[in-house]
Every structure is written in C-alpha cells, then in structure tokens.
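Incident log, support desk, overnight shift.

02:14 A customer reports that sequence design results differ from what the structure should imply. Their input is reproduced verbatim below. On-call engineer (initials T.W.) acknowledged and began investigating.
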C-alpha cells in the first residue's frame, strides 16, 4: 500500500513539473531595441545583450518595463550585430526568469 501511495505522489510531482516547464514556451518579439552591446564570455565566444521595452498591465494599470534579451551562437550574434538601438527586432525567443525578472533568449531572427 505504501508503494502505491509513493508511486502516485511521484507521478503527480512529475506531471506538475512537466506542466510548469511546458508553459515557458516561445514568444514572438516585435519591438524596438533600446540598447545593445556585444561582449565575449569567459571562453572567448561573442554574445549580444539587447535591452527592449515591453508594455504590461497589472490590475488595469499600464506600465512599461525594460527586458534583457540575450543572443548566443555565432550566426545569431552576427545578425544581432547588424542591428542598432532604434531598430525593430523581430525574433522568436524563449522566456526565462532570472532573479525574479523576465528575460528572453533569441532562438531565431524573423526576416
């Protein structure tokens, strides 16, 4: 009987974990770049860090936040380097959360 209860508990826990991970998903970005920098990581690989603005609403109060958008991989970074502040970014990205703040990782640029 204990084994069945433990099995059910583990099955429910796995279901909840898989559901939470599936909710992250991808989003389509279509917004203006506020800031952009290209830097190197500790291995010497370049990455781009873009700052975009995103409009949100909470309890009927609209507001705008700045969201960090990261670009990794030589092909994507090369495309990001062609952009500058004021340009519109159109990309598919994953949503992540770091220290309680939302950020994006670009998966592909949309032409």
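02:41 Re-run completed on a clean worker. Output:
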């Amino acid at each position: 009987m204990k084994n069945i209860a433990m099995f059910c508990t583990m099955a429910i826990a796995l279901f909840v974990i898989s559901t939470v991970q599936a909710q992250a998903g991808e989003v389509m970005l279509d917004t203006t770049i506020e800031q952009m920098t290209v830097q190197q990581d500790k291995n010497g690989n370049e990455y781009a860090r873009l700052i975009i603005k995103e409009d949100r609403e909470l309890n009927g109060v609209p507001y705008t936040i700045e969201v960090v958008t990261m670009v990794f991989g030589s092909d994507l970074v090369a495309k990001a380097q062609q952009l500058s502040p004021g340009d519109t970014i159109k990309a598919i990205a994953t949503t992540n959360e770091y220290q309680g703040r939302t950020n994006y990782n670009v998966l592909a640029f949309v032409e």
